UniProtKB/TrEMBL annotation:
One GO biological process term: protein maturation
GO MF annotation, one: iron ion binding
Record-linked Gene3D superfamilies: 6.10.20.100, HypD, alpha/beta domain 2
Source taxonomy: Bacteria, Pseudomonadati, Pseudomonadota, Gammaproteobacteria, Oceanospirillales
Protein's organism: Neptunomonas antarctica
Family designation: Belongs to the HypD family.
Keywords: Iron, Metal-binding
PANTHER family to which the protein is assigned, alphabetical: HYDROGENASE MATURATION FACTOR HYPD (PTHR30149:SF0), HYDROGENASE PROTEIN ASSEMBLY PROTEIN HYPD (PTHR30149)
The protein's name in its UniProt record: Hydrogenase maturation factor
Length: 399
């Protein structure tokens, strides 16, 4: 792909891996926050290019994974009602609720439509004035501007049969919550580049200083990620805890000011429940008072409805919370690759391609005993050959 090949050059990657090895003296644990980074790390086998002293753990930056069971149950409630067109991104249809998922509602006749943006849902509302059109607005700061614009345009155009069921998360409070956890073993963070493209990174220096952790704003290509790791390791070895911007070709310190203005006009902060993790103060967004008529929870009388399931835990036996806090890996779960697969997920991280479990399942190999082999999962010699421009072929039990 044009402009991507230079960030996937095998020779450059190996040179940078050698530089990382040269500066690494101690054992360090680094968390990549974003699910897109997790996907790239596993797909390209980047852990295998690093010295044994460096461990990468996977963060909660997959919006499909952290959307609460409460929201999924409310989505199911709304989607099953007559005269409702429920719109969502495709992967949300398979996220388990407390009893079922949206796909099962669709199979029973619910009018659920997969869309590519909230503006598609708004267009449907214009074309179907006799229906209530609801968009499941999930995501982090990256998707918030588009979701805010949909509500803004609905109010401006008087499209009153449109509403948002919001599940919007904020990254900095999640980083702080993990830093505060007594179980945390994270010593440095790779911050999500696309989030910072919207928000900038002016809020990160306080976190880095307060908790003594380097934070490196990092992109998503193999070279980006290894450069982010190199900058982070340099800081750790030198005893520094600062914010650096590896993704300078996209991210500016102040971020995208018009996008921030749109978010601030339509949304306001709220405390949020993160699936598998629990409650995090001021870590989410809800529609502000002026846009409350477009709040699906209010419109359908679900504001005070709470699921019987505990949002701190996923389905029984799922360890998604431990995985997204960097305490465990997908291969530590007894259900991984057995009862829990992408076609029949027990937990949310097996649904989205950005989920750590789905990435491990898709790109990892298994040994003859039918268990995940962490040491043989990736071939260091061929990772950047054919897989540089296309998905690499993997050995899988079901192939």
């Amino acid at each position: 792909m044009k402009y991507m090949h230079e960030y996937r050059q095998a020779v450059t990657i190996r040179q940078l891996a050698d530089k990382i090895a040269a500066v690494t003296r101690q054992h360090w644990t680094i968390m990549e926050v974003c699910g897109g980074q997790t996907h790239a790390i596993v797909k390209y086998g980047l852990q295998q290019f690093l010295p044994a002293q460096i461990e990468l753990v996977h963060g909660p930056g997959c919006p499909v994974c952290v959307t609460s069971i409460d929201i999924i149950d409310k989505a199911i409630d709304i989607a099953a009602r007559p005269n409702v067109i429920f719109c969502s991104f495709g992967d949300m249809l398979r996220v388990p609720g407390s009893e079922k998922d949206l796909q099962s509602v669709k199979a029973l006749g619910g009018d659920i439509r997969i869309v590519y943006s909230p503006m598609d849902a708004l267009t449907l509302a214009q074309h179907h004035p006799d229906k209530e059109v609801v968009f499941l607005a999930i995501g982090f700061e990256t998707t918030a501007p588009a979701n805010a614009m949909a509500a803004y345009q609905a109010r401006k155009k008087g499209i009153n049969n449109f509403s948002l069921l919001t599940s919007q998360f904020l990254v900095p409070p999640a980083i702080e919550a993990m830093c505060q956890s007594p179980q945390s073993r994270i010593q440095g963070f790779l911050a999500a580049g696309h989030v910072c493209a919207i928000t900038g990174y002016e809020s990160y220096p306080k976190l880095a200083e307060k908790y003594g952790v380097p934070i490196v704003v990092t992109g998503f290509e193999p070279l980006d990620i290894l450069q982010g790791i190199f900058l982070c390791i340099q800081q750790l070895e030198q005893g520094r805890s600062e914010v650096e911007n590896q993704y300078s070709r996209v991210v500016r310190q102040q971020g995208n000011l018009p996008a921030q203005q749109m978010i601030n006009e339509v949304f306001e902060c709220q405390s949020q429940s993160w699936r598998g993790i629990g409650h995090i103060e001021q870590s989410g967004l809800k529609l502000s008072e002026a846009f409350r008529p477009f709040d699906a929870e209010q419109k359908f009388g679900l504001r005070d409805k709470v699921s019987s399931a505990n949002n701190k835990y996923d389905t029984a036996g799922c360890i998604s919370g431990d995985i997204m806090q960097g305490l465990k890996k997908p291969c530590d779960c007894i259900h991984f690759g057995k009862q829990c697969r992408p076609e029949s997920p027990i937990g949310a991280p097996m649904v989205s391609s950005e989920g750590a479990c789905a990435a491990y399942y898709r790109y990892a190999t298994f040994n003859e005993s039918d268990t995940f082999n962490k040491n043989a999962a990736f071939n260091k010699s061929d990772t950047f050959n054919k897989s540089t421009t296309s998905e690499k072929t993997t050995t899988r039990r079901d192939q």
